[in-house]
Design a protein that fits this description.
By secondary structure, this protein is mostly helical. The protein contains 14 helices and two strands.
Amino acid sequence: MKASALSGRVAAVALVATVALLPLLVRNNFQVFILTLIGIYTMLTVGLSLVMGYAGQVSLGHATFYGVGAYATALLSARLGLPGWAALALAALLTGLLAFAVGIPIFRLRGHYLAMATLGLNVIFVLILKNESELTGGPSGFTSIPPMKLAGVVFNSDAAMYYLVWIAALGVLWLSFNIVRSRVGRALRAIHASELGAETLGVDATVFKLKVFALAAAYAGLAGGLYAQTIRFISPSSFDVLFSIELVTMSAVGGLASVWGSIFGAATVVLLAEFIRDQMNALLAGATGEGEIIIFGTLLVVIMVFMPEGLVVSGMKSFRRWQGRRRAPTGV
């Protein structure tokens, strides 16, 4: 077995063990909820990494699909009475299909135009949520979302939702690892390097971009459904442009083309956001949203300028260089 494959398996086992034991080490339910949130955001960040880091397509409105999954799950379970697991699965499927349909015209654009189109999609989605109050609850939000029930188990506690979310997150990570190491992953990297060059090698760039965009949206729909079933209340403010910026920051922190880095990026931004809300309200006169925009925007710019591969990848490369210098013979 190659050293890289062995280290990957060791890391996977360590991650599963950490996920299983963490709830036993935290002090209260709020901390369990924060860990659950990291699992939800990990699924979002992995999907965005596939789109931006591997396929090279700029998406600044990924919170749209997160919101579609959340509201679809809420409506299907609360209004139509579907079981929570069925509502969740159907919401993820519908979100992926929606992204595929929307991606057909969007991926005709390039560069800044593509980024603005995805950003505009997010703005339109939030406006629909706020104005269609009879369906979505409007700015006040959607309540009375029933808890998930599966095989006779009711997931109505923080610990239960934590394990459910992280089982889904580990599944998403496993699937994404297999994708990036497969022929599909090689095709995505070729598209990122040069769409024209990839097409000359027989890669249908449009089809691959649409498929990875739909898959990332399905991840987001699944994450949104789990978020809705975790807190059982959703509102438009949870899926606005600010959150899309946070998601891009998560991907940049972990590394745009790093599946492992998605966990680190999600955890870093979640904990940083909590720090901002807890410690900086007085400094910013209660303008938490403006404070987050300033800090996340600055963090994103610094990382993209000085560490474009992300903190995780750049840190690992720096560590390897340091090890290489230590092992290098000194003297003549």
